[in-house]
Design brief:
Shape: rod-shaped
CATH architecture of the largest domain: 2-Layer Sandwich
Pfam families: FliH
GO biological process, one term: protein transport
CATH topology of the largest domain: hypothetical protein PF0899 fold
Function: Needed for flagellar regrowth and assembly.
Number of strands: 4
Oligomer: single chain
Domain Flagellar assembly protein FliH/Type III secretion system HrpE: 84-204
Distance between the termini: 170 Å
CATH superfamily of the largest domain: ATP synthase, E subunit, C-terminal
Strand content: 5-15%
Number of helices: 7
Largest sheet: 4 strands, mixed
Order of helices and strands: HHHHEHHEEEH
CATH class of the largest domain: Alpha Beta
Helix content: 55-70%
Radius of gyration: 62 Å
Structural class: alpha+beta
Family: Belongs to the FliH family.
C-alpha cells in the first residue's frame, strides 16, 4: 500500500515596497532622478495650421476695418452731394423770379424788334403812313406855332415829292432831316413842347400799355 503525497499550502509572497529597490525609497528617488527628461523644453504647440488660422483672422479683421472705412467715406461723400443739390435747388428757387423777369424782358425786346421791322417794312410799301403820321403830329399844335418837324431823310424826300400841299399848309414849320430817326417815325419840337413820334418810342409805349393791362 502506497503512501499519500505530502501536499504543502502555497501563499503569495508579500512584497515590501521598501525592499523592492535597493536602498528603499531613497533608491526610488535616486532612480527617478536618473530618468531622462522626455519633454523638449523648446517644444511649441504652434503648428503651421495655427499660423494659417491667425493669418486668416488677421485678413478678415483687416477686411472688416477696410469695409467700415469705405462705408464711412461713401456716407460722407453722399452727404456732401446731398448738401450740394440742396444748395443748387435753393439758388434756383431764389433766382427763378429773376430768370422769369429776364425772360419777359427778352421776349419784350424781341417783340419790339419784330414790330419795328414790320413797321419799317410797311413804311416802305405804303408812303401814306408817313404823311398821316405828320398830319396827326402837327394837328396837335397850332398852325402858327413855330415848330421843327424832324423826319428820316428818305421819308422827308418822299413827303416833299408826293405831299407838297402838306408843307404849304404849315408855313411856319421847319422841316429837318434826321438820320438818327428810323423810317416811319418823326419828332416835333415846339417852343414849349416835344412830341416824340419815333418808331422806337411809339412801340415802347404800346408794349408798356400792354404790360400794365
Amino acid at each position: 500500500m502506497s503512501s499519500s503525497p505530502n501536499w504543502e499550502t502555497w501563499s503569495p509572497q508579500t512584497l515590501d515596497p521598501e525592499s523592492t529597490t535597493p536602498g528603499g525609497q531613497e533608491g526610488s528617488k535616486a532612480e527617478s532622478k536618473s530618468l531622462p527628461n522626455l519633454v523638449d523644453p523648446s517644444f511649441s504647440m504652434v503648428t503651421p495650421f495655427s499660423e494659417d488660422v491667425r493669418a486668416d483672422k488677421a485678413r478678415q479683421e483687416g477686411f472688416r476695418e477696410g469695409a467700415a472705412e469705405a462705408q464711412k467715406q461713401a456716407e460722407a461723400q453722399l452727404h456732401h452731394a446731398v448738401l450740394t443739390v440742396e444748395r443748387v435747388a435753393e439758388e434756383l428757387e431764389r433766382s427763378r423770379g429773376r430768370i422769369l423777369q429776364d425772360l419777359n424782358s427778352n421776349v419784350s425786346l424781341l417783340a419790339l424788334a419784330v414790330a419795328k421791322k414790320i413797321v419799317l417794312r410797311e413804311v416802305e410799301l405804303d408812303d401814306t403812313i408817313v404823311s398821316n403820321l405828320v398830319t396827326q403830329a402837327v394837328e396837335l399844335l397850332h398852325p402858327d406855332t413855330p415848330v421843327t418837324m424832324s423826319l428820316n431823310p428818305e421819308d422827308l424826300n418822299v413827303l416833299k415829292a408826293q405831299h407838297p400841299d402838306l408843307m404849304e399848309k404849315f408855313p411856319g414849320m421847319h422841316w429837318h432831316a434826321d438820320p438818327s430817326l428810323s423810317r416811319g417815325g418823326c419828332r416835333v419840337e415846339g417852343t414849349n413842347s416835344l412830341i416824340d413820334g419815333s418808331v422806337d418810342q411809339s412801340l415802347k409805349a404800346v408794349f408798356e400799355g400792354l404790360a400794365y393791362d
